[in-house]
């Protein structure tokens, strides 16, 4: 089943194929580009800690960090690792695990056919033994240690831990040295067979490649996956924040801070995608670098150029936060809260709204010009039941009324937490 | 379709390089001022682009300037400072969407070029012709903070400390933003003097990368820079001294969970692009890929770390190997890193390893041409290295390098410094 997705705005198009194996394939050839970028992703990340399929009697809860552990382990097979196979094609290969997805990727300029074959093959052929699991515990243990020393990472997860009581988004993606010690080959296979079902996965390719080569490789390598019903346990998360302030001591210069607002997740992933875009515009309207508040904070030396805002929304959580360096993070929080209350009572300035929308539009446009960003965008949109161009359209059709309505939901000063890392 | 790169002289020590590629959706315009790294001047130089980024005569404060950038479809105006060999490069750049995506047919590219010219050449100055005290104070504080914040990222901090130990007294050791005492001494007068020196004496490299009208953007900047009275110094790539007779060792303590081991090496006697290419291949084969000696042995075989990598710097010919490890495994990791180095020096690698390393490097090189910023970075590095080859030509050169040349490059590498950042005893 093939569908052409078009954008009048960009004058571009891409193909969406529902492959007989169950896999969704998104193909975006880009004229003039020398490299191709492929992303093979499963709709499975660190927050999927408790789940069941129609074959399971009850929910299983797995150790924290297992999605990430699985990502590391899939690179190995009985006859060597995937990096060694890619070495013969010259592809630059990697993988990552986030809160809501695990993705395997490569970028290449030659031998695309061989590389796409390797990608489809190793991700669909798991191989775990007690010895290889043990070896990985050492490597990932050092990855976790590295993040323990990283103040940006700590201030971020401390914030999530302050905003959320029980939602697994509060737990570090890689887990802990203790949690990964509980992982064994059987558990890995269970997670694999649950989430690496091709119906739960998407392959996106952008750049310089021939779509027929991808489809041909998929036909040869992928076996039809059984249909399954997958239920993820929704965390019984209260509306309130767990705590309003969290501080940690680490060797840093100026204190690092994050000020987060716990939002309300939408009913669908598509709503969350829209919500994230709306929140990005709101972040700019409240304290973006063209606002009077930003200037005031900067001139009072309460923030510096590292100050920025970010919005996140997946599955069953939605939040926004500002991060930066400050000698007085509490005052920054208070100033932002005051500005939010002012905007709530006076409404958003229509001119500022128009300008910010235009700027965010320009920023998003950048993603449509780079193979790696575009492949990522296609996957994100697909998992949210949208197409890649809808992101631009959602932004273009945002109205002032919608934002005035969303402001108190996404930026509720009663549901705010401050995370600080200082020495 | 491919990229066309043209470099022309548009004034005394001012060059315009244009890289046109119709596939890009953005245009990136950068102005780079190249200054010798100097311990006493580094902070004053570094603060200049950051003060300029605060506004210009037409847009005299950060709010009006950033409002203007939003009107230009969220164009990015960036101030940055980086090191290249013995030089400090001050860069101001603007990146905007190409005119074909303007909603009302505006000439975004020309307007971005005009704004960048105003930022660099028409700053806001007080009655005495100096930068304002308020802007200077803010950016002095930012430079001071940036210097102090070096300890935040332990991996880059450890690398920097290794370089400091290794190159003490050489210009390449001078830090990008200078030092606490030189940053504290920044005044409107000293920063303005650094600005005037930069305009008068620094070689200026203007680079346009994108799909838009490079000629028109180039002309706007050429006109803006015309009439500047200049006496630019002659730029020469730096040469570093030899490694010491005995290896330097330095250990520092900090409250951290993971130890950071850094080995600094000097690759001596590399003269030609071909010899430098051999050294790059050697470094990649040794520790620059996920199938390199270091990755396969220190990480995969011994399970000692998450990362263990080597990087060769073409500007200085220094090579750094670094790894994050358990404190107790320091000697084990160090022994294995050095053992693998000996293996490469002895030619203990296959032709297949060479071919695979070349293939990966080619792929990475060609991929740079798919991004405006990577392309700009590539050509700036070419200019500073005193050559002008495309990524394709560079990959072609690497392909012709032989096993013997790689072994020779490996044997030119001398261990200079072993640096270890470890946890405090009570923290372990």
Would you give an account of this structure?
The complex is a heterodimer of chains A (423) and B (428). Chain A is globular. Chain A has 15 helices and 17 strands. Chain A has helices spanning 66-74, 82-87, 112-123, 130-148, 151-163, 177-181, 185-195, 211-221, 269-287, 292-299, 329-346, 350-367, 371-383, 390-396, 400-410, and strands at 2-7, 12-18, 24-29, 36-42, 50-53, 60-61, 76-77, 80-81, 92-97, 102-108, 201-207, 230-232, 245-249, 256-262, 308-314, 317-325, 416-422. In chain A, α1 packs across α7 and α3 (112-123) packs parallel to α8. Chain B is α+β, with helices and mostly antiparallel strands and 428 residues long. Chain B contains 15 helices and 11 strands. In chain B, the strands form 2 sheets. In chain B, strands 1-2-6-3-5-4 form a 6-stranded mixed β-sheet, with helices on both faces. A 5-stranded mixed β-sheet of chain B has the order 7-11-8-10-9, sandwiched between helices. The longest helix of chain B has 17 residues, at 351-367. The termini of chain B are far apart. Chains A and B meet through α2, α4, α10 and α12 of A and α2, α4, α10 and α12 of B.
List keywords for this structure.
heterodimer, A: 423 residues, alpha+beta, seven-stranded mixed beta sheet, five-stranded mixed beta sheet, 15 helices, 17 strands, globular, B: 428 residues
């Amino acid at each position: 089943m093939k569908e052409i997705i078009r954008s009048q705005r960009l004058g571009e198009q891409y193909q969406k194929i529902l492959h007989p194996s169950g896999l969704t394939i998104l193909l975006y050839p880009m004229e003039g580009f020398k490299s191709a970028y492929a992303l093979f992703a499963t709709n499975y990340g660190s927050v999927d800690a408790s789940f069941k399929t129609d074959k399971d009697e009850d929910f299983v809860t797995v150790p924290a960090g297992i999605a990430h552990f699985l990502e590391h382990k899939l690179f190995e097979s009985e006859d060597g690792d995937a990096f060694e196979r890619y070495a013969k094609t010259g592809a630059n290969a990697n993988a990552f695990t986030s809160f809501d997805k695990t993705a395997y990727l490569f970028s290449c300029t030659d031998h695309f056919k061989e590389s796409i074959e390797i990608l489809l093959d190793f991700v669909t052929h798991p191989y775990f033994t007690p010895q290889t699991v043990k070896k990985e515990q050492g490597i990932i243990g050092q990855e976790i240690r590295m993040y323990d020393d990283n103040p940006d990472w700590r201030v971020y997860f401390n914030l999530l831990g302050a905003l959320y009581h029980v939602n697994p988004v509060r737990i570090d993606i890689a887990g802990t040295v203790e949690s990964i010690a509980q992982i064994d080959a059987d558990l890995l296979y269970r997670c694999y067979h649950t989430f690496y079902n091709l119906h739960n996965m998407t392959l996106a390719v952008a750049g310089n490649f021939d779509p027929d080569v991808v489809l041909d490789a998929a036909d040869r390598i992928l076996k039809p996956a059984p249909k399954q019903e997958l239920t993820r346990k929704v965390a019984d998360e209260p509306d309130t924040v767990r705590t309003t302030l969290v501080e940690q001591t680490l060797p840093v210069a100026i204190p690092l801070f994050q000020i987060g607002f716990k939002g309300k997740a939408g009913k669908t992933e598509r709503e969350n995608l829209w919500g994230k875009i709306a929140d990005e515009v709101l972040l700019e309207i409240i304290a973006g670098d063209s606002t009077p508040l930003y200037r005031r904070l900067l001139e009072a030396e309460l923030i510096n150029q590292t100050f920025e805002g970010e919005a996140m929304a997946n599955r069953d959580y939605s939040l926004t936060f500002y991060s930066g360096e400050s000698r007085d993070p509490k005052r920054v929080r208070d100033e932002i809260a005051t500005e939010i209350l002012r905007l709530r009572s006076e409404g958003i300035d229509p001119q500022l709204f128009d300008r910010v929308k235009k700027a965010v539009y320009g920023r998003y446009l950048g993603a449509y010009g780079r193979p790696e960003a575009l492949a990522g965008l296609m996957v994100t949109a697909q998992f949210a039941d949208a197409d890649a161009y809808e992101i631009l359209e959602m932004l273009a059709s945002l109205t002032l009324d919608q934002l005035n309505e969303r402001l108190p939901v996404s930026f509720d000063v009663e549901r705010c937490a401050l995370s600080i890392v200082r020495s | 379709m491919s990229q066309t790169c043209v470099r022309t002289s548009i004034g005394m020590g001012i060059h315009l390089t244009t890289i046109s590629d119709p596939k890009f959706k953005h245009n990136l315009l950068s102005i780079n001022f190249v200054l010798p790294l100097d311990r006493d001047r580094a902070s004053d130089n570094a603060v200049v682009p950051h003060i300029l980024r605060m506004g210009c005569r037409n847009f005299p404060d950060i709010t009006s300037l950033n409002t203007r950038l939003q009107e230009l479809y969220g164009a990015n105006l960036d101030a940055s400072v980086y090191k290249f060999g013995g030089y400090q490069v001050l860069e101001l750049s603007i990146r905007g969407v190409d005119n074909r995506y303007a909603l009302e047919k505006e000439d975004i590219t020309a307007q971005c070029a005009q704004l960048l010219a105003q930022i660099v050449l028409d700053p806001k100055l007080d009655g005495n012709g100096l930068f304002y005290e308020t802007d200077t104070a803010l950016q002095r504080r930012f430079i001071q903070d940036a210097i102090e914040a070096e300890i935040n990222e332990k991996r880059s901090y450890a690398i920097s400390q290794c370089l400091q130990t290794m190159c003490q007294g050489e210009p390449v050791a001078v830090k990008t933003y200078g030092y606490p005492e030189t940053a504290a001494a920044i005044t409107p007068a000293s920063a303005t003097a650094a600005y005037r020196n930069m305009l008068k004496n620094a070689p200026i490299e203007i680079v346009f990368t994108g799909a838009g009208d490079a000629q028109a953007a180039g002309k706007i900047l050429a006109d803006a820079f015309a009439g500047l009275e200049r006496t630019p110094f002659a730029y020469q790539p730096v040469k570093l001294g030899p490694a010491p007779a005995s290896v330097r060792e330095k250990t520092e303590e900090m409250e951290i969970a993971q130890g950071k081991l850094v080995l600094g090496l000097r690759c001596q006697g590399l003269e030609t692009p071909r010899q430098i290419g051999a050294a790059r291949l050697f470094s990649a084969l040794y520790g620059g890929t996920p199938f390199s000696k270091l990755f396969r042995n220190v990480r995969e075989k011994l399970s000692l770390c998450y990362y263990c990598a080597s990087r060769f710097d073409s500007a200085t010919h220094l090579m750094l190997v670094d790894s994050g490890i358990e404190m107790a495994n320091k000697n084990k990791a160090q022994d294995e890193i050095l053992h693998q180095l000996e293996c490469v020096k002895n030619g203990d690698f296959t032709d297949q390893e060479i071919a695979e390393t070349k293939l990966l490097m080619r792929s990475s090189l060609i991929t740079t041409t798919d991004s405006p910023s990577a392309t700009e970075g590539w050509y700036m590095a070419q200019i500073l290295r005193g050559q002008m080859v495309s990524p394709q030509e560079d990959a072609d050169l690497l392909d012709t390098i032989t096993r013997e040349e790689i072994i020779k490059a490996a044997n030119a590498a001398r261990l200079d410094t072993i640096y270890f950042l470890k946890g405090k005893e009570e923290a372990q």
